[in-house]
Amino acid sequence: MNKQSFLFLFLLGVVTFSTAQKKKITLEEIWGGEFRTESMDVLRSMNNGTQYTVLNTTRSPRSSSLDKYDYETLQKAETIVASSDAVPYFSSYTFSDDESQVLLATEVEPIFRRSRLGIYYVYDIASKELVKISETKIQEPTLSPDGSKVAYVLDNNLYVMDLAERTTKQVTTDGNKGTIINGVTDWVYEEEFAFVRAFEWNSDGTKIAFLRFDETEVPHFSMDFYGTGLYPYQYEFKYPKAGEKNSIVTLHMYDVASGAISDVDLNDPYYIPRIKWMHDANKLSVQTLNRHQNDLKLYAVNAEDNLATVLLEETDAAYVDIDDDLTFLDDDSFIWTSEADGYNHLYLYDSNGKLKNQITEGPWEVTRYYGYDEKHDRIFYQSVENGSINRGGYSISTKGKRKKELSTQEGTNSAAFSTDFTYYINTYSSATTPYRFTLHDASNGKLVKEIKDNSALLNKLNGYEIAPKEFSTINVNGYDLNMYMIKPADFDPNKKYPLFMFQYSGPGSQQVANRWMGSNDYWHQHLASQGYIVACVDGRGTGLKGRDFKKLTQKELGKYEVEDQIAAAQKLSERSYIDENRTGIWGWSYGGFMSTNCLLKGNDTFEMAIAVAPVTSWRFYDTIYTERYMQTPQENPTGYDDNSPFNYPELLKGKYLLVHGSGDDNVHVQNTMRMIEALVQANKQFDWAIYPDKNHGIYGGNTRLHLYTKMTNFVKENL
User: Residue 497: its pLDDT value, please?
Assistant: First the structure.
C-alpha cells in the first residue's frame, strides 16, 4: 500500500469516527423547539430617528411593557407604559402620528390569517390616562392623525370615537354578516391581497376613505368543526371559487365634520386592492384591477368633488402584481415598482403620472423597497444583484446615481431602518450561519454595533450530524434551474442512495435560497442522517429570475412545473450515487398539488410521494389567486382539468400519502376528499390522514410531531 492510499484510509477513518461521535437530529427535538433561533424583538423606530420602541412580554408572571431604546447604545431609555392593575396586559401597540398616544390591543383573538378581534385602549403618554374604545371586541382601530379620534369596525360597520368627548358615532348602518362589509375586507381580499383594514384617514383627519364589500351573491361555504362537544358544528363564510361571483366593491368618502358619506365613481372596477392618501389632504390614490388582473389603473381622486383621474395604467399579457411599494414624495411625485422591462425595478413618476426616470435596472430583481430618505435623496432597497439565491441591501438616488452597496455579505440580508434613515438594523443569515443582528450607519453600511447572534445554537449544532446544503444549478428543459442538495454526512460516492425531492413551485416563489434553516430543513437533515439524499429544484414559474421565467406557466399551472421536477429527477438519477429505482417527492399546499401530479404523470420516475394540504383542482380554489394565473374555468377549462390529478387516478403506480386538516379554510379538505374518491373508484391503494379541525398549517399541541413522524415512517417504509 502506498503512502497516499494509507493517508486516504486514515483520513476516511477519522471522518467516520468523527461522524459517529455526533448526535443525529430527532423529530422530538425539531418540534420540541430544541433548535429554535433567537430573534430580534419587533421594533418600531420613533419619529426622532435616534430611538426605537419594543414590546417586551413575559409569560410567568404574565406582563407586558412598551420600552424605549437608543439606537446608538441599544440601552433602554425608559418604559412608556407597562401592564399593571390599571393597565391590562397588551399584546400589540400602535402610536399616534405625533407619538403622544398609543393604542393598546388586549384579549386578541384571530378570525382568519390576518384579521383579529380585540378589546382596545388608548393610552395618553403625558397624562397617563387610559380610555377603553369599546366594551365589545372590535377590528382595526386606527387613530386620526392628530390623535383626537379613533375609527374602527364593529359587526361590519364603521365607527368613529371622539376621545375627548368620549362619544362614538356609527358611520355606516348597512353592515351585516354574509352580505355587507364596511371598512374591512372580505375573506378573499384578506387572503390574496394581504390586507384587512379597508379604510384610511387623510392627512388632516377631515376625511375617511373606505371600501364597501357587497358579498350577497358570493357563494356560501361551510365546513364541519368536531370540537369536543356532543355535536359538531358548521363554520360558515363566503368563499368565491374560481369562476364564481366576487364581492361588489365600491369606494366611499366620509366627511368627519358633516357626517356625510359620498360615493366615488371609478368606472365599476372589478377589484380595488389598494387605497392610499397622498400628502395633499384632498388627494387619494386608488389602485384598481380588472378580473384577469392584467390591467392595473392608478387613480388620483380629488376628495372635494370625488373626481377620479388616471395617473398611471400598467398592463401585462399575464398579470400585474400588487404590492405596498407605492411611495408619495412631498410634492406627490411617486416611486413605483414594475416589471415593465422584464425585471422588477424602481421607477419615479411626477405628480401627474408622467415617468421621470427608471431608477434601477439590470437583469436582476428588486425584492424589497425599504423607503426614501428625501433629505439626502436616497432610496433604500433589497435585491438579488449578488445572485438569485442571495439578498443584498443597497441605496441609490432617484436619478439612478450614487448607488452604494450596504449589507451584501453572501446570504440573505434584510434591513429595518430608523425613521430618519440614520441607522438600520441588518438581519443576516445563510445556509451555514444562523440569524445575526447588527446595527449599521445607513449612509455607508458601516457596522456600528453587534446586537445579537445565534452562536449558542451554532455551538449546539456542532454536536450534531449536519450535512452541508450544496447549491448549484441543473439544466433541464433548456433552463438552468437553481438547486440544492443535502447528502448524508458520511456520504460515499461509491454507494447508491435513495433520492427524496422537496419543492413548492408556486408562481413567484423560491425554495432554493441561501438562508438559515427552518423546521423542514431540520427534517431533511434528519432524513439525510438516515441515508437519504434530499434535493430541491426551483423550476419554471418560480421567482426572482425575471418576468418571463416567472410567468411562463400562465394558464397552465402544474404543466411546466411538473415537467421540470420529472426531468430534474431523471437527470439526478443518472448520477452514479443515486438509486434511480428509489425516488420520492413531497410538498405542502401548491407543493402537494405538484407532488401528486409528479407521482401520477411521472409514474416511471417517482416511486413515492407525500402531499400535504394539496390543491387537487384549481376549480376549488379562490378567484383572486387562481384567476390571476389561470383566468376562469369557463375561459380555460383544459388548463384547469388537464393538470387536475383526480382526473387521472389510474396513473398511480407508486406509494402515496395524502394529508389534510379538516378545518382548512384556505385549501379546503374537499380537494383531498375528491382525490380519495377518485383513487377509490380507480381501485388504487394509498395512505391518508385527516387532522380534525386543523387549518392549512396543521399545527397545535403534538400535531406537527405526529404528522412528521407519520411522514418519516412513510419515507422509510417506501423509499
Answer: 98
483 phi and psi angles, rounded to 5 deg: -145, 150
DSSP secondary structure code for residue 37 in this structure:
P
In the beta sheet, which residues pair with residue 476?
Answer: 479
Which residue has cell 405526529? 706
Query: Which residues make Cβ contacts (< 8 Å) with residue 129, sequence separation at least 6?
Result: 123
Give residue 74's Cα distance to chain centre: 29
What is the distance between the alpha carbons of residues 133 and 483, in angstroms, rounded to a whole number? 52
Residue 18 has pLDDT above 80, yes or no: no
- Chain centre to alpha carbon of residue 82: 31
526 among known catalytic residues: no
Taking alpha carbons only, the member of 62, 51, 66 closest to residue 102 is: 66
pLDDT tens string 65-110: 999 999 999 999 999 999 998 999 999 999 999 999 999 999 999 9
Instruction: Determine the Cα–Cα distance for residues 282 and 279; give it in Å rounded to an integer.
Output: 8
CA–CA gap between residue 163 and residue 147 (Å, rounded): 8
Residue 464 neighbours by CB under 8 Å, 6+ apart:
22, 23, 24, 25
Tell me what the mean pLDDT of segment 247-260 comes to.
Answer: 97
Phi-psi region of 134 (alpha: psi -120 to 50; beta: other; left: phi over 0): beta
478: burial class by Cβ within 10 Å (0-12, 13-18, 19+)? exposed
Name which of 50, 97, 48, 105 is nearest 81 in CA terms: 105
Distance (Å, whole) CA 70 – CA 439: 12
Phi, psi of 156 (to 5 degrees): 70, 15
Task: List the catalytic residue out of 430, 440, 664, 668.
Answer: 664
Question: Could you say which of 589, 595, 617, 662 is catalytic?
Answer: 589
> Residue 65 in 3-state DSSP?
strand
Contact between 648 and 600 under an 8 Å Cβ cutoff? The reply is yes
For 61-203, strand residue ranges (E) read 63-70, 76-82, 92-95, 101-110, 116-124, 130-132, 139-143, 149-154, 157-162, 167-170, 180-182, 199-201
The DSSP annotation for 230-275 comes to: SS-EEEEEE--BTTSPPPEEEEEEEETTT--EEEE--S--SEEEEE
pLDDT above 70 covers a percentage of the chain that reads: 97
Is 124 among the residues known to form the active site?
A: no
Does 60 qualify as catalytic in the annotation? Answer: no
Residue 685 buriedness (CB in 10 A; 0-12 / 13-18 / 19+)? exposed
Beta bridge partners of 686: none
DSSP labels, 653-675: -SEEEEEEETT-SSS-THHHHHH
